[in-house]
Amino acid sequence: MSFDVGRLAALRDVHTRSISPENFGGAKSGGGRATEGTGAACAAGLGQGWKVSPSVDVEARSVFELASIDEPGRITHIWLTTHRDNWRSLVLRAYWEGEDAPAIEVPLGDFFCNGWGTFAQVSSAMIAANPHGGFNSYWPMPFQKSARLTVENLADQTATVYYQITYETNTDVAGSGYLHAQYRRSNPLPSKATHPILTGVDGKGHYVGTYMAWGVNSPGWWGEGEIKFYIDGDLEEGFPTICGTGTEDYFGGAWNFDVPGRGYTEYSTPYLGMPQVLKPDGLYRSQQRFGMYRWHVADPIHFHENLTVDIQALGWKAGHRYRLLQDDISSVALFYLDRPTANRPEFPSAEDLEVAGEPMEPMS
After folding, report:
1. Three-state DSSP class for 329?
2. Which ranges in 205-313 belong to alpha helices (H)?
């Protein structure tokens, strides 16, 4: 999965195309032709070719098609931005090979490792989130015949979205898996339950990434829970092939992410990080919240028949014993699969996606 820098100089017969509001179809010589768009008033008098159509307005409770590609190819980069109020109410979906069911179905902010509606700088190899909400994805998204990307606005207000999707055609995608991304939220996690990250996916593929937005509902340390990968029939045995040693361990940290004298400490590296720590403000934000990612790019987890992934929520209580937690846990699971659709969960409603406890406007 990692990019081979040694091949950067190799000449290839691929074609680079880009879809944006300035070239909705990605056609060669098709950019900058707009005479109408969200920037038309600003460009008045400048003429065609200036910044006339930089964005789109996605109406309330509607779906907008970001891109439709009808030939073999590979999406190599997505850049997108919108106001942070939209990060949980806009849903990104991707459909491969004309299927009716999406392979990617994730709230926009969570896909780009910003699940809490508050900006966090993410400086990883696969996802970069830059000030103030410049979202970038470098996950390769190959397809054999066609691809369609949409965004759904679950809110009651129009959302303005800027985006650019870069892709290659005339490229060899034989033997490639399809990228899938699934979202789940446990709010709160039921008593004595584990949080399901991925459930009952059948086929051959490899698991490549986890993002988690973890809201803590109890005092004290919260990250003792183990992540477990049930590979190729493990569920029938009742035990996983891969069993982690703790939440902070899985995300590449240690000892509660607690640097002496600094407390919880954010970090962002190419393949793992905890870029976000939201602390209580003594008023509306009463719980600690965290954002973490782990990209299995150098170490993908391969499966040949099926895969299920879950994580425990454990803290500490008196007597140095584990405390079962009932936290607010959201996750995104990313994996490549040998088929364009997979078993996926029912997507939450707009109400179930809501980030509660955010600062409110003063009442008059």
Report:
1. strand
2. 234-237, 247-250
